[in-house]
Amino acid sequence: MRRITTRSRAGEEEVLFEYLQLSPRVRQSGRRIQRSPSPPNRTLSTPPPGRPFIQSTRVLRPIRMAQNNPYVNFTSSSPLALNAQHPIPIAALKNIPYFTGENQTTPGDHVKDIANICAIHEINEMQVAVKLLTSSFKGKALQWFRSLGAHVLFTNWNQLCIALHEQFGEKGDNLSLLEQLTTIKRAPNEQLTDFNFRFQRTWERILVAVRPTAEGAFLYYLKALNSDISMLIQSMGGITIPMAYSIAIRAENCLIQAGKLAPMAPRPPMPLFPSLESPNTNQAPNLAPSPTPRNQSSNGASTSSPSVPNELQEVMKQLQNLGNELVTLKRQQAQGFRPSYQPQAQPNR
């Protein structure tokens, strides 16, 4: 600001200075006038000095509600027979626990959690509670709910809870399932892939709260197998259940090739028509459209014919003999002895 030595000008400058001091929101910087930031807002708890505390009546904002407007195609095929639109509190949607149907929790405990949320947020309408319960479905539970379609309609809370318990409820006691896991053993003629599936299924059926850890399940798996297979699994670096499954199959094949384990018998062939099977399981039913059956002569006397399991056993014995001969030849070749080997001719069948 330019300074003037006259009194009148000095008086004007003093007046102008006093005016700018009284209005702190405006200040002069050359020709440009800038506005300073507004003073901080004072709350009711800290009133400005020199003024009495005045309690103001504030209007409370209503609770934000999420309007449940689902997709049209999903609504047409939804199992919920709810025509009216009911708002759901956003706070309830944020705090909702999810139910996947994979034994994280039981259906009864999940229903109690949803009922507790409804009580906290004062949800009194049954249709809102039903929609809140269906909004918590994820994974397998959501796939099951969508697969019901419009032909299955739930009109109240009890119907949905009963259907949820029938679908994902525990079919057995957790303690009995835990005992079954700790005492599980492989059957003598059971394929290793079948045993792996049975072990995994037994472990997954146990509730997560009482389910053994992965390390404990690994020890139970080693205990259920043969001692040679268990030693090979540990020596080949198996430390988890998925690794043990794949290593066990390779270990069993190695032991069979080395001759320490007998080869497993193949699975019997599945019948094409199970309802037409005869009471005698050793004889297959004759389905040939000939007037005289093969197992019956012209005079009505039945003749014995070789059954399918016996033929399979003969073929397995021949294959086992050939395998033993090949193992013997390999050992002799490793020692330096090379005999002339001529395989036996197989009879024509």
Automatic annotation (TrEMBL):
Q: What is this protein called?
A: Retrotransposon gag domain-containing protein
Q: Which organism is it from?
A: Taxus chinensis
Q: Which InterPro entries match?
A: Retrotrans_gag_dom
- Region named Disordered: 27-53, 269-349
Composition bias, Polar residues: 293-310, 330-349
What region holds the Retrotransposon gag domain? 131-206
UniProt superkingdom: Eukaryota
Organism placement in taxonomy = Eukaryota, Viridiplantae, Streptophyta, Embryophyta, Tracheophyta
